[in-house]
From TrEMBL:
Name of the molecule in the record: Subtilase family
Example of a GO biological process term: proteolysis
UniProt similarity note: Belongs to the peptidase S8 family.
Taxonomic superkingdom: Eukaryota
Species this protein is from: Musa troglodytarum (fe'i banana)
Amino acid sequence: MLCASRAQVYETKRSWDYLGLGYQHHQPPGLLERGKEGDGILIGVVDTGIWPESRSFDDSGYGPVPSRWKGRCDAGVVGPIRCNKKIIGARYYRKDADLSEVARDYDSPRDANGHGTHTASTAAGSLVSYANFHGLGAGTARGGAPRARLAIYKVCWGSGRCWKADVLQAIDDAVGDGVDILSLSINGYGYSPASLGAVRKGITVVFSGGNDGPVPQKINNAVPWVITVAASTIDRSFPTDIILGNGRTLVGQSMCYASSDPGYKQLVAFDSCSVVPQYLTLLADKIVLCFDRAFAAAVDADRETSLLLSGLTKAGARGAIIARFPRSILPDCSGITCVVVDYDVGVQIANYARVETASGRIPVVHVSPAFNIVGSQVMSPRVAAFSARGPSIDYPDLVKPDITAPGVNILAAVRDGYQFMSGTSMACSHVSGIAALLKVVHPDWSPAAIKSALVTTAYTTNERGCPVEAEAVPRKVADPFDYGGGHIDPNRAMDPGLVYDIDPNDYVNFFRYTNRASNSTSGQNHLKLPSGAIPDLRKSGVGSSRTYDLNLPSISIPDLKETPVKVRRTVTNVGDTHGRYMAVVRSPAGVKMEVEPSVLHFRASGEKLHFEVTFTPLHKVQGGFTFGSLTWVHRHGNNSVRIPIAVRVIIRDFFSDTS
């Protein structure tokens, strides 16, 4: 590495402090304290397994395993594990798995990949002092619900591939084992009806939304009964000084860490990163500047960056400066100095190299080590470029994702220490930990109530009062198909005032049955449906069955024509015994939106009141989605209960907008 050492300032794990779930003394007490750090809650993690020897799973100070736990600990054959009072159960599934992937892994619940260990420790890891990645992000690592217990279900093998039948069986087993929260940082379609079977048993199911952003219609796991999570940044960055041979200093972002080599190295500039592999034999002991000009999805672009860095490392290059579109995720440097800059900084570095070369001098550059900056000087949150966007192709009459949470450069446990990872997987595990805390505070809340509390209390503006942005090309103001209700606000979710609750049976009663066969209906905990039938959500907007009539904390109408559409909702008072709420409407552009009644007067806790929202198009047009919101505001300002609205005005059904 070319990066010289720099002292680090120690902090607690930043993402939880950023969410207001640090160990500060709240007045009144915050969710972490009132939620007893998740004590007594069982979180099931369906992922790549676990590395139980990590300090994040130390069970010191834990009491006996709860008697309601019905699961088991399968030690395994190759790389066997032992459970403890923190990791109270572990299973592994490979009935459907590719044998070549299994051969690259441990034949046990042990995690060869690192992903499952990272997500489990993020959700419920024990406190670990002085956790860091080569000095970066140093502090006390812990999960959101550090006193919760973990049950591990390994369904993904080798490179992280997962198989549907194994996932379905794991969900089924988790329900029977007695978990309270199910955290699934995996791609899919919500694994219906297994996940619905879990929800019907009172289990809150949290899924990652996928990493195929920023292009639209890539959202995963978009069924209405689960919490689908987007990923966003926190108020931490890792700036890196780039010092040119003429003494000028520019700033990039990097995970570059300590080294004993502070010297300058020759700089070689390329107009495009795509041509660099042709010149690898000429780049030994040099630092490369190149421009990533791809418009690919963020996950594809980052994969290409990783391949480039790997090639440079093998060629003996000393580093890379990559100019690209703004994107928060930082590449894994993998033993080589690597810095990302925006195009403006990249052009300035390239101009320096051009002038030096034209003058007969060798351009040189020095890259300093990265350091931590946290707090208000870092603009946050921003929805990550890789975070998958809605609307769902299958279910456009749902707002998905539901919520966004920290998922960029998250430090958590892996096999031999702690590592930064980014993805909606990391965001999913944050929401799972928060759901565990809410379950302690409100043990009688249904999964729908927990979801509603998270969505309706989320925020859409940052601490400066500016709208939350979404990384894309170009960067834009975020909308509900980027982040659902907004950015998660755990302490507000503890006291939402009103919730949009749903009897799990409503999911079944609402969607009409079809004869579409499914091999996923086996198992005693799955949804009981007529033989060979499951709810056909893809047809839910056809005929008399409308998904947007389900009592969700959001409304999406993808097919508003000339005739006004009325949508009914019911809210339950979980706040003051006597509460008066007034409707504040922000209509989507091109749509008239009316609420009746516009005032709700509650006289008892637990009381349910109904209202209708009427949507009328103001123009006859084949349009796109526009966005708004409906907020119920308590007359004394105690609570503000907001749901996102998405409406598309159309003239004809199934119109291809390809212009």
